[in-house]
Design goal:
single chain; about 575 residues; alpha/beta; Rossmann fold; 3 domains; nine-stranded mixed beta sheet; eight-stranded antiparallel beta sheet; globular
Length: about 575
Amino acid sequence: MHPRQVLLVRSTQPENRYGPFLPEILVSEGLTGFETIDLDQDAMPVSGSGDMVILTRCFLRDAEISALKNAVNAGTRLVCIQPSARLAAAFGWATAKHVLHPGWIKVRAGYPGNGLPLPTHVPVAAYKPEGDAGWTTVADAVGNDWNETGTPAAAVRRHGDGRIAFLFYDLPEAVARIRFGNPGLVSYQTTGVWGWPHAGDLFIGQVDERVKHLPTADLHGQFLAKILTDIAPYPLPRVWYYPEASQRSAAIFQSDDDSSTQAQFKELSDCLAAHGASGTFYLMRDTKLTEVIVADMRSKGHTFAPHVNAHWCKDEWYFDFARQLHEETAEFKQRFGKCSQSIQCHCAPWQGYQSWVPEFMKNGYRLLFAYLSLPLSNWQNYMCGSGRAMRFFDTTGVLHNCWQQPVSIYDDTTLIPLIKEHHAELIGGFEKFLDDAVSRTHTAVGMLSHPVSFATYSRPFMEPCFDRYVRAGMPIFNGDQWCEFLDRRSAVKIRSEMPHGGTSHFSVDNLRGRMALMVPVRHKSTAGGIARLDGKQIDGVVHRRLEQDYLYLQVDGDGRTHRLEVEGA
């Protein structure tokens, strides 16, 4: 019997604008078994023992609140995102009638994200439990000065036969704000540096110096995933971030033409090959590469797309960029054939908030490298609070089937003095940056090197980065390899059945190719790693990651429904 995993939204309520973004956050965390129900179109589902329900920020009628309360009493597990005062009161909370804005959360030990406070950029509502209600605080609300406020940001408790968690901030809105920037800064130039707009212009004033080295958007998602794992009545399976269980991070590599010579392309290409990697190269209209050279590089695993130059639009980017994108893409395909699904435009321009995303999609692009960590103070840090990809979600509530891939490391001309004069310091900073990604957060690293830059000044920095990736067992993906993996991973549906006979059962749908599945270890017997896929025993290995012991299972799927069994889970 499959217990239900349900995520509730209410599409007509403005307060629920970011509710539909939460499924994408769950998928990013490998939790792919939840189904979304819109309470404005369907009735509150009847939930029973073993079911899991996530309620996104919305208002409920009294009858709906009673139904949820009765379900939890009967054994349902419930997570409420920014509950209304009326719903909170039904579970023993009294509103303090004020908020922390901007709010920060300080995650407690035992949960991913513990340590330094995490920004939210959204209000954290102040509540206090009435009497001895049995709540356990798992994250505290703190102010911008990081001082304690005495109010929780998240709390959990048992309730009847079920369990419940309240998060007193709108987590999906927080993740969207961290990843995509401030929509209030749309179409402004804010950095005081460049003569054209960048995605970085959306982040001025919101990237806090104290935590810019942390992938804070990822940590919010990991925090929620751990809450769900803890309160679930059965082992809650996930899909790992990378194809192999041994891979704890990854690099995603791209390269911009910028009038590089054939010899410079070859130097970078050969260095990648020496590290078992390939790249995606973006070629200018007047590229020095010939069709023969491009074909030869393709045979070695490299992929290509145009390096669309918005400067050809002169000062009318707002009106002409879509035409320029279409023209250069068509020209590239006519000359070179197959075009990458990923793209980086010359000088990385970005107009508006996400208004260009549909234009890229119309031309076949589904992974954008436009979000470079800008200005220079954000270099080798997480401007977007992440190094991993996530699909764009805009302020109108539309989830675009197009991946935002942040870039933390690049080598444009603004970095020449830094790379030449502070080489050892940069390598040391990179080691620290990567160590945290590999050992704790498991985020990825978006990376850009121009052939001309690599050959003339950045190789002494870039090549040691490649060396470090190899030593850490990190794959180096090109744009197309990464996009293909993201598509396969997001399509997987893995659902739990109620355990019986000492064995946990799962169904796995849409699993194609190689993937690593992870099952939380709840009993010592699970650590033995005895598992079967479609009746055939497979080996597992236990790793402690994300503040939890997981049994990792390396599997290969063919798209049909697979049956997974784990003994003792």
